[in-house]
Amino acid sequence: xxxxxxxxxxxxxxxxxxxxxxxxxxxxxxxxxxxxxxxxxxxxxxxxxxxxxxxxxxxxxxxxxxxxxxxxxxxxxxxxxxxxxxxxxxxxxxxxxxxxxxxxxxxxxxxxxxxxxxxxxxxxxxxxxxxxxxxxxxxxxxxxxxxxxxxxxxxxxxxxxxxxxxxxxxxxxxxxxxxxxxxxxxxxxxxxxxxxxxxxxxxxxxxxxxxxxxxxxxxxxxxxxxxxxxxxxxxxxxxxxxxxxxxxxxxxxxxxxxxxxxxxxxxxxxxxxxxxxxxxxxxxxxxxxxxxxxxxxxxxxxxxxxxxxxxxxxxxxxxxxxxxxxxxxxxxxxxxxxxxxxx
Length: 343
Hints:
The protein is α+β, with helices and mostly antiparallel strands. The protein folds into two domains: 2-199, no CATH class; 203-337, no CATH class. The protein is built from ten helices and 17 strands. The chain has helices at 37-48, 66-76, 81-95, 189-195, 203-219, 221-225, 230-246, 252-259, 263-280, 292-298, and strands at residues 2-3, 11-17, 26-28, 57-59, 104-116, 119-129, 133-140, 145-152, 160-165, 174-179, 197-199, 249-251, 287-289, 305-308, 312-315, 323-327, 333-337. The strands form six sheets. Strands 1, 2, 3, 5, 6, 9 and 10 form a seven-stranded antiparallel beta sheet that branches. Helix 5 (203-219) runs antiparallel to helix 7 and helix 5 (203-219) runs parallel beside helix 10. The chain is globular. The two termini are 37 Å apart.
């Protein structure tokens, strides 16, 4: 969790970065911007209010990562912000090779004394504005109003951003990212090509990755290899969620036994885990502390829903024993639901 209520902007540099492949310009400003009191709080809101995810990342390839090295120089001397912002802008320009990558203003900001997970530290913000909003501006003179249209930055919409905290520098720092406009072939350039970040190896990601693995298995390979109904599938998902909610520590052996309770299904799950780890390129641990935040975030993908044509959705929260499936004499399929109380 990030608390920016007491932080200030001590340095802000802005450059324009176009698309290199499309031969757009790279404009590098000569000095940092002086920020007036009337816009300081608006800038704080624009830059920081969107960062509320519990998910953290770290830099990779530290020996050759230009953004990591630029951040290291800034943390060593805050007076280096503008010089290193030019270095960062050049790197972004050199990475903007996909023809669909939008041009825009690049902001490099230094935030002293920002609080992350109850730890006070300094942070560097790297932000890119790609979309300008239209707005109306009213003017008045002595006897009438007149109106004109302008374009500007919507402080409620941060297109791309990265916050790097001065924590664990030898491991690639601790960072958060935002990318709201990445689509198609250019979707990964901000995180992978430009920043070169990977998920931090922590309990949040271990929990998230294992829950993603379980959901993928139950929704895919389990249905392909075994004769299971949608009700069976829903029960497996409910057992999985129940395990993560009721336990503080994850143990793969206990999890597999509690959720699947069948040696053939467990063997299939272990084989799928090996394939999933390689195909998805994610770390799948088998022993870790369960992150309550990750469980809460992932709970929405664990909703057990049976969709019947376009007419009905059945949400299953408990055992499938109260659900009966059958076929009428005329071939129509049905589900029979048993309940004790109507709310």
